[in-house]
Amino acid sequence: MKLDNKVAIVTGAGQGMGRAIVQHFVDQGALVYAVDVNSDAVNTTVGSLGEQAYPVVCDITDESAVKELMQRIETEQGRLDILVNNAGIGSVDGFLETPLETWQRVLSVNLTGAFLCSRESAALMSKAGSGSIINLSSTAAQTGEGPCHYVTSKAGIMGLTRSTAKELAPGGIRVNTLVPGPTDTPMMADIPKEWMDAMINAIPLGRLCAPDEIARAAAFLASEEASFITGQNITVNGGMAFL
Ligand SMILES: NC(=O)c1ccc[n+]([C@@H]2O[C@H](COP(=O)([O-])OP(=O)(O)OC[C@H]3O[C@@H](n4cnc5c(N)ncnc54)[C@H](O)[C@@H]3O)[C@@H](O)[C@H]2O)c1
């Protein structure tokens, strides 16, 4: 299997893509720390996965909670091989009506949370001299179609990837951006129907992405099959945009 005996963290593991990534990583032989702020949701994710997945209730914007998680993994496993920075939030705001609090919250979860998890994970990975970090962006970062806080946070993710890919490469750590197009998850539930219809019309393959299609791309990037790929945008969007 692609991820035999790898130790992984997946954030935002309580539903949607995060849940699919946890399930697929376990299918591929990984041991997964499934992280989410929502305790019921993350317990449901790991429910049927036995000893191969641990639920972790943690807010990724809380620096001390993230550090505590890394200490726990170091004590329990002695190493960390994979981090998937998947947790993300959004809200539907026009630019002129965007409250400062919303801007700050979206940037905090989508970008600062990824920064904190990356920094603390890389410190642990570098002890073993290897690792793979996968940062979830969005096609919205390329097309600009979406609320300003969300698009900005997802464009920032690409910068985080490029900078850390360069700096961490000598330590054997690869960092890549996974760029999904519109995907069938609970995050999409609040999107107005007209937006949804327009989005699907703009996808040449004519449908939303399935969460498992994102999970399979994440497993590829996490695995040795992607051993010479770092700093890149890997896009899974049904042909909606070309990066
Ligand atoms: N669904 C899409 O169409 C789409 C498209 C492109 C990119 N993305 C991105 O992919 C990722 C996953 O999207 P999704 O649709 O599965 O999202 P989702 O909303 O269905 O799930 C996100 C999960 O993140 C968790 N979370 C939120 N804040 C957190 C925090 N501070 N700490 C820990 N966990 C937290 C939530 O509880 C939830 O379980 C996100 O980064 C999203 O921006 C989604």
Please, could you describe this protein's structure?
The protein has a single domain (7-236), classed as Rossmann fold (3-Layer(aba) Sandwich), CATH 3.40.50. The chain is globular and about 50 Å long. The chain is 45% helix and 16% strand. It contains eight helices and seven strands, in the order βαβαβαβαβααβααβ. It is an alpha/beta fold and 243 residues long. It has helices at 16-27, 39-46, 63-77, 100-128, 140-143, 148-168, 193-201, 211-222, and strands at residues 7-11, 31-36, 53-57, 82-85, 131-136, 173-180, 233-236. Strand 1, helix 1 (16-27) and strand 2 form a beta-alpha-beta unit. It has a seven-stranded parallel beta sheet, with helices on both faces. Bound molecules: nicotinamide-adenine-dinucleotide (NAD). Residues 11-12, 14-18, 35-38, 41, 59-61, 86-89, 109, 113, 136, 138, 180, 182-183, 185-188 line the site of nicotinamide-adenine-dinucleotide.
Give, in order, the helices and strands: EHEHEHEHEHHEHHE
Nearest-integer average pLDDT = 96
Shape: globular
- Per CATH, the architecture is 3-Layer(aba) Sandwich
CATH homolog superfamily = NAD(P)-binding Rossmann-like Domain
- Total helices: the number is 8
CATH class: Alpha Beta
N- to C-terminal distance: 30 Å
Q: Kindly report the CATH topology.
A: Rossmann fold
Find the structural class using helix and strand composition: alpha/beta
Helix-strand layout with pairing:
Layout lengths: L6 E5 L4 H12 L3 E6 L2 H8 L6 E5 L5 H15 L4 E4 L14 H29 L2 E6 L3 H4 L4 H21 L4 E8 L12 H9 L9 H12 L10 E4 L7
Parallel strand pairs: 1-2, 1-4, 2-3, 4-5, 5-6, 6-7
Bound molecules: nicotinamide-adenine-dinucleotide.
The site of nicotinamide-adenine-dinucleotide has 30 residues, from helix 1, strand 2 and helix 4.
